[in-house]
Design brief:
The protein has about 260 residues and is an all-alpha fold. It has one domain (about 30-255). The chain contains 12 helices and no strands. It has helices spanning about 5-25, 30-50, 60-80, 80-85, 85-90, 100-125, 135-160, 165-180, 190-200, 205-215, 225-245, 250-255. The protein is globular and about 55 Å long. It starts with a helix and ends with a helix.
Length: about 260
């Protein structure tokens, strides 16, 4: 299968999954708008009015972090389960297994475009002016997309071998949610070495920080953190693709 056909097939399959999901819901495509808003409002209420945390512009601060995290979390979880979901198809035809995590991640990426529109509207309503500086989002979004498909492909191997690994993914996402600066500002870390280590070793924290620098603070993206995210993404893609290709026959037997 050549590259252009592979990309076209991934795109078509992702669109078909989107339409299928929308048709199964009463509110259809409206859920793509409501879901990120409901998640953010729930956490905003808890932190602002129950725990009395947060400060000025906390809603937008939280929304930037939570929407970017939801994209990663949902795409990786969906991609990790993609081989099992397509068990029937894989039993009938010999298809590249790397395609299935990619389809699910592509579907999540299309949904994320709606979430970004909602985020931009909220930012503008809250006084953050759109500017050419927002074009710096392009490399951040690209890096998150690459990181997502790499991690999803990597995890899909282990979920196919043992579905118990889904529990590990849940714990992994929970850990990321509390260590990536979604609810708190990474800049509040007083020890510069600790802050540096967090942003270098946790690519999601660096991504969320990058989103806030561009959208809220008009800051400059730090090259070393963007390079670190790139390295993590490439490592995940290489490992995930290698494991899916090397163990293709074994994974097919596990699906039986």
């Amino acid at each position: 299968m050549n590259a252009s056909r592979f990309i076209s097939l991934v795109h078509t399959q992702a669109l078909m999954k989107l339409k299928s999901q929308a048709n199964n819901l009463v509110l259809s495509y409206l859920w793509w708008v409501l879901e990120p808003l409901l998640y953010v409002l729930l956490f905003y209420f808890v932190f602002k009015y129950v725990l009395y945390r947060g400060g000025e512009n906390f809603l937008t601060f939280l929304m930037v972090g939570k929407i970017s995290f939801l994209w990663f979390s949902k795409a990786v979880t969906s991609g990790a389960n993609s081989l099992i979901e397509n068990k029937g198809l894989l039993m009938q035809r010999d298809m590249p297994k790397a395609m299935f995590p990619l389809v699910n991640c592509q579907e999540a990426f299309y949904k994320q475009q709606i979430a970004f529109v909602v985020l931009f509207v909220v930012l503008i309503v809250n006084g953050f002016s759109a500017s050419f500086h927002w074009l710096n989002l392009i490399p951040i979004i690209l890096l998150q997309y690459l990181l997502t498909i790499g991690v999803a492909a990597f995890f899909s191997v282990f979920v196919t071998i043992a579905q118990d690994f889904r529990m590990v993914i849940q714990l992994f996402m929970l850990g990321l949610m509390f260590t990536s600066g979604i609810f708190w500002d990474v800049n509040l870390i007083q020890d510069p070495n600790l802050k540096d280590m967090l942003l270098l070793l946790n690519p999601l924290a660096a991504l969320i920080q990058g989103y806030r620098e561009v959208l809220m603070w008009q800051g400059v993206l730090e090259f070393k953190y963007m390079l670190s995210i790139t390295c993590w993404a490439l490592l995940a893609i290489i490992l995930g693709t290698f494991l899916l290709t090397k163990n293709s026959n074994y994974l097919t037997r596990k699906l039986l």
